[in-house]
Design brief:
Helix content is 34%, strand content 18%. The protein has eight helices and nine strands. Bound molecules: 6-chloroguanine.
Length: 230
């Protein structure tokens, strides 16, 4: 998979991309992540990429020229056309189902902008879908892009090492994850449930399913309502 990110702050991505699973997935060539600075496509020597909104109002709006030029340049960097995604709080909410869907693409082109917004012609002209990571406002799309990259890359076959570990995650079956324990058997008077020490794998699987269901009911009943609708 190839992921291109168009951003005004490519350096923000350095640390998240150079640690842990994201680092290893790139080293293993499961994913190639390329960052392009939108400011390199500014038309003037001041490297201006935003301007005051027509009609007045606070903040600055990203100009269409640099984003279009940057997008068209990036698209040519690889033969695969790619699925364009605009990161904006007005987008469709990102969730695990979306992560699974996007993890099957050959190429994604993520466009991170300033929170005040994009000139409307960017959305219309690029025909990109809009994605938000939740109902709150971030200063820009960069952190959202990193969240999306992280959620997608861990789903790529081989990324986690242990093939089964993504399947058991919270949300992958619409439920929260069952409780996990490791050594020691007793910690500050809290004991690991006997069933997990029993060696009875069928009973353990049944117990885990039950636990997952109970904690979802208690902590995230909205998830159960969602799954009724499907
Ligand atoms: Cl994708 N961008 C911004 N600026 N804020 C957000 C967001 C994206 N998703 C949630 N809040």
């Amino acid at each position: 998979m190839r992921i291109d990110v168009l951003t005004l702050f490519p350096q923000m991505f350095e640390s998240p991309l150079s640690h842990s699973i994201l680092k290893r997935a790139q080293e293993m060539s499961l994913v190639e992540i390329a960052l392009t600075d939108i400011r390199d496509f500014a038309a003037d020597s001041y490297r201006k990429i935003d301007d005051k909104p027509y009609g007045g109002g606070p903040g600055m709006v990203m100009m269409p020229g640099p984003v279009f030029d940057c997008f068209e340049h990036v698209q040519k960097l690889s033969p695969e056309k790619g699925r364009g995604i605009l990161l904006t709080p007005q987008g469709q909410r990102f969730d695990q189902a979306k992560a699974v869907e996007l993890s099957k693409e050959k190429r994604l082109i993520l466009i991170a902008g300033k929170y005040e917004g994009f000139d409307e012609r960017i959305r219309i002209g690029l025909g990109a879908e809009q994605i938000s990571i939740g109902d709150y406002v971030l200063n820009g799309g960069e952190l959202a892009a990193m969240v999306i990259i992280d959620a997608i890359v861990r789903l790529l076959p081989g990324a986690l090492g242990d093939e089964d570990s993504a399947k058991d995650d919270s949300f992958s079956d619409g439920l929260l994850e069952y409780p996990q324990y490791t050594r020691p058997e007793v910690f500050r008077d809290m004991k690991v449930p006997d069933i997990l020490l029993s060696g009875d794998h069928a009973k353990i699987a049944q117990w885990r399913k039950q636990q997952a269901l109970e904690r979802t009911k208690k902590w995230r009943p909205d998830l159960l309502k969602d799954s009724d609708k499907k």
